[in-house]
Write a structure and sequence with these properties.
heterodimer, A: 111 residues, mainly beta, six-stranded mixed β-sheet, five-stranded antiparallel β-sheet, 11 strands, 0% helix, globular, B: 114 residues, seven-stranded mixed β-sheet, four-stranded antiparallel β-sheet, 48% strand
C-alpha cells in the first residue's frame, strides 16, 4: 500500500504570516506529484504538477518544491491572506497508473 | 463550459436502497474517475475509466459499479447501499493518461445511508 502523508493536519495562522507544509511520498517509482487546493463547499482545483527532482513552481504567493530522491514536497504560502484558507492536498503518481492522495493540510488564516 | 457536472448534490438513502450518481464533462476528456472523501482520509479512488469503453477498479471498489456511457458520461451505481457508504463522492476527469494531466473535479455529492 502506497503511503502519501501530509503534515501538519491543520494549521492556524494570522494574516500576513508565511507558512509551509509537507507532503511525503515513496521515493521509488516516482512519476509526478500534484498539489490541489480545496476550499470549503467547492471542488478541489489543481495548483501545481511537478515531475523533476528539484522542480520549483510558483503561482502568486504560493510556491512548491520537489525532492524526489528523499520523497517530499513543500508548499509555501508567503504573506497568508484569509482567502488562502483551504485544505491543500498532494497526490502522488507512481507506477500504479493512479493518483494516490494524501489526507490534506487544512489551513485557516485569521484576519 | 460547465466543466464536470455531478448530480445529485445531496441524497439520503435507507440501507438496501439503490441509486446512481451521474457525472458528465464537457471538456472532451478521455479519462474519468470516481472518488470518495471520508473524514481523516484522503480522496480514495473507487473506479476509473481511462478511455471510453474501459473501466477499472480503484482502491475501494466493493459495493459499487460503474458505466462509461459515452465519452462525456460516467455513472456510479450503489446496488444495495450500506451505512459504510455514507461519504462525499467526487467525479473527476482529465484530458489523457499522461502523469502531468491534472484532474478537474465536480462539485461533489453528499450521500447519507441510514
Amino acid at each position: 500500500i502506497l503511503n502519501v502523508e501530509q503534515s501538519p493536519q491543520s494549521l492556524h495562522v494570522q494574516e500576513g504570516d508565511s507558512t509551509n507544509f509537507t507532503c511525503s511520498f515513496p521515493s521509488s517509482n516516482f512519476y509526478a506529484l500534484h498539489w490541489y487546493r480545496w476550499e470549503t463547499a467547492k471542488s478541489p482545483e489543481a495548483l501545481f504538477v511537478m515531475t523533476l527532482n528539484g522542480d520549483e513552481k510558483k503561482k502568486g504567493r504560493i510556491s512548491a518544491t520537489l525532492n524526489t530522491k528523499e520523497g517530499y514536497s513543500y508548499l509555501y504560502i508567503k504573506g497568508s491572506q484569509p482567502e488562502d484558507s483551504a485544505t491543500y492536498l498532494c497526490a502522488f503518481w507512481g507506477n500504479t497508473d493512479k493518483l494516490i492522495f494524501g489526507t490534506g493540510t487544512r489551513l485557516q488564516v485569521f484576519p | 463550459n460547465a466543466g464536470v457536472t455531478q448530480t445529485p448534490k445531496f441524497q439520503v438513502l435507507k440501507t438496501g436502497q439503490s441509486m446512481t450518481l451521474q457525472c458528465a464533462q464537457d471538456m472532451n476528456h478521455n479519462s474519468m474517475y470516481w472518488y470518495r472523501q471520508d473524514p481523516g482520509m484522503g480522496l480514495r479512488l473507487i473506479y476509473y475509466s481511462a478511455s471510453e469503453g474501459t473501466t477499472d477498479k480503484g482502491e475501494v471498489p466493493n459495493g459499487y459499479n460503474v458505466s462509461r456511457l459515452n465519452k462525456r458520461e460516467f455513472s456510479l451505481r450503489l446496488e444495495s447501499a450500506a451505512p459504510s457508504q455514507t461519504s462525499v463522492y467526487f467525479c473527476a476527469s482529465r484530458r489523457g493518461g499522461g502523469v502531468v494531466e491534472k484532474l478537474f473535479f465536480g462539485s461533489g455529492t453528499q450521500l447519507s445511508v441510514l
